Amino acid sequence: MRRPELDHLLTTMLDSQSEVSDLLFTVDKPLQVESFGELLHVPSDPPIEKLTPFQTEMVALNLMGDNQWHITDLIHRGSCDTAYTLTDKARFRINIFSQRGNYSIVLRKLNTDIPTLEWLQFPDIIQQIPREKTGLVLVTGATGSGKSTTLAAVLNEINHTRPVHIVTLEDPVEFVHSHDRATFNQRELGTDFDTFSGGLRAALRQAPKVILVGEMRDRETVKIALSAAETGHLVLSTLHTIDAGQTINRILGMFEPDEQEQIRVRLADTLRWVLSQRLVPREGGGRHALVEIMGSNLRTQESIRLGETEGKSFYEIIEASQPFGWRTFDHSALEAFEKGTISEETAMLYCTKRGPVTRGIDNLKKARGESTTNGNSLRMKFIQETKTAKPAASSAPATLKLK
């Protein structure tokens, strides 16, 4: 397979649906794309009913090109990450991996247009993140929840408003930023540096004001990131965690028990924001981002230093700070339901605590004049119970039963 043939194949897959997020190549399966969270088969000419091991290997080799780093990673570690640009069409983040002796490939389509915070329609409090001068900002969520898009929007805001040097360490480079007021240097793992910890250590000697670390993968990276945040840098990064509380626990869990007390103090002093995301189905098609936002105040710092206790969990702290713009996933779900963006079922499925969300939905329905219970199934039946051993006058009173 030559590159023009690969480009034609990728174009066919992209054009098969109006909205494509991922392209999949798997042995014994046809060409597949993911659209709005569902995998769909893609017809091709000539038709491909089942991909062969040779075909997936040829696709993998064309995507890697002559990059020896990626080829070595694939052979010795079983997977590699790379990027690919389909000329004037799209850019992809790619993972190639082996399974049962064959190669499979997943291509995540990246937006070529740099997103803005206004376009993402996040709460106004998110505008405070690009204004931070120092500290640590974490964007968390499951794979495919839009973490990279959010960070790109934050960097884009900094790019247009502050004349600073920005260094990014990515795996691979997803959004390519042009220079505006800020100066960008974007480095890619496997091409420009060998590990995140090594790249971050080198970044401290490159005079940046803002550093983006693609992912906090190990404790060495976390330690250097904390040092960078303590020495006057703004450090942005991601973690695969579902909420603010799990984010703190995941970072602490990377360290030995005798190290955790010191890490708690450093994290409490440097952490500025934790923004967690969940992508949920939108009414009418598409997806909507629910967000949990936790900033830094005396209560969060105390809970990080001493640990969560009854009445001082991160959920309760965020809930108490809603007047200042913070929000839980439950608040975001109720707000999206009130606007008609998501269904009641979706709100219940993706919330954190079902009890408060159920009560909130019932209150919203009452305000709209909608019924909150289904009373059609309730029927009343009077059953006259008589006792044959006693006179009719002394029969037991009628009892009311609900069915």
Using brief descriptors, characterize the structure shown.
alpha/beta, 15 strands, single chain, six-stranded antiparallel sheet, 403 residues, globular, disordered C terminus, 14 helices
Explain this structure to me?
The chain is an alpha/beta fold and 403 residues long. The chain is 36% helix and 24% strand. The chain contains 14 helices and 15 strands. It has helices spanning 3-15, 53-64, 68-77, 117-120, 147-161, 196-203, 219-230, 244-253, 257-270, 298-306, 314-320, 329-338, 344-350, 354-368; strands at residues 22-25, 32-35, 38-41, 79-86, 90-99, 102-110, 135-141, 165-170, 183-188, 210-213, 234-239, 271-281, 287-294, 380-383, 399-402. The strands form three sheets. Strands 9-8-10-11-7-12-13 form a seven-stranded mixed beta sheet, sandwiched between helices. Strand 12 and strand 13 form a beta hairpin. The termini are far apart. Mean pLDDT is 90; it is low at 380-389 and 392-403.
